[in-house]
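Team,

Forwarding the record for the chain on the shared tracking sheet. I've put the sequence and predicted structure together so nobody has to dig through attachments.
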Amino acid sequence: MLSTQVLWWLALPILLVPIWLHRQKRQRLKAEPLATARFLPASAPEQLRVWEWSDRLLLLARCLLLVALIAWLAVTVFPWRGDTVLLDAGVEKTWADEQIRSAGYTAAAREPMPVDVLPWLHSHEHEWRGDARLLIVGAADKIAMPARPPQFAHAVALRVKAPVVAGVVQKSEHHIVLATTPDRAQAWHALFNAFGVAGGGNERYVLTDTPDSKTELIVWDMRDAAAPANWRAPLWWAAPNALPELAAAPSLNVNGLTLKYADSARGRLWASSAWPAQDADGARAIYETWQLLAHGAPAYPAPSRTLDIGRSAMPGALPAAWLAWLLLALFLLERILTHARRH
């Protein structure tokens, strides 16, 4: 799904027009009558091509004005999409067709559903016309609902196919990197021992000092030391303010546990003042939260629902303000230079 905005840059060859016009500028030579001119053969008045410094400034101003105008058009969005179905290619076709028909989107255009469809739609919503409707059809593991329901300027409906659970297969071994101070190490070991009991004895937690390809969690409980830049893991648990990426991170409350979360090059980062747990209830809350957010994302599988229209303006529909001011400044400069050349 590509925007047509970029096609405006194909208009750049129009810059050849003012260059050609300026190059064709000619000035008639002054002809003075002389008494002896009658003895010379008659000749037509001649013209001379003139390329003055003032014309070069005017040419530059006009070329910059055209470039600024093309750039302004390239960042200005003209909504062109109508009713659309964003369809997950992995769902059963019969079920998808039934959902599309029952929702009244039979005549709507069908497009492949992007990854992280709700954030993607939030940033691309300006491509749809004001009266357009959208239907998202996909599997539950492909559509995650953020902690705060998204708000759109269009009517957006979700049709989510719940997974068929034939049996629950739990991971028997978890590789965890524990980086903490000696006085807190015992509490962390006790927490993961409690996790093993909560898992019914079917899960084992292997604590190591450095991450490898099997590491799924890094516990960084070092407040006065920076985490190694080359450490990577799908999920990090950190003390508050231990990692710089968490400084302005949003908060999420699950099972009474308040988490700050952020995505980074290291992996998904969680921070909380609740760990390591001080009692059995705290350990249970941490365990249940980890299981609930097992894929390391602060989001829940989205249910089938219709999202209410929550805002009236669409971001990205207007060009950058500085381009409008630049266009005005270049237009005034071009008029001034044109007037100066004539006088």
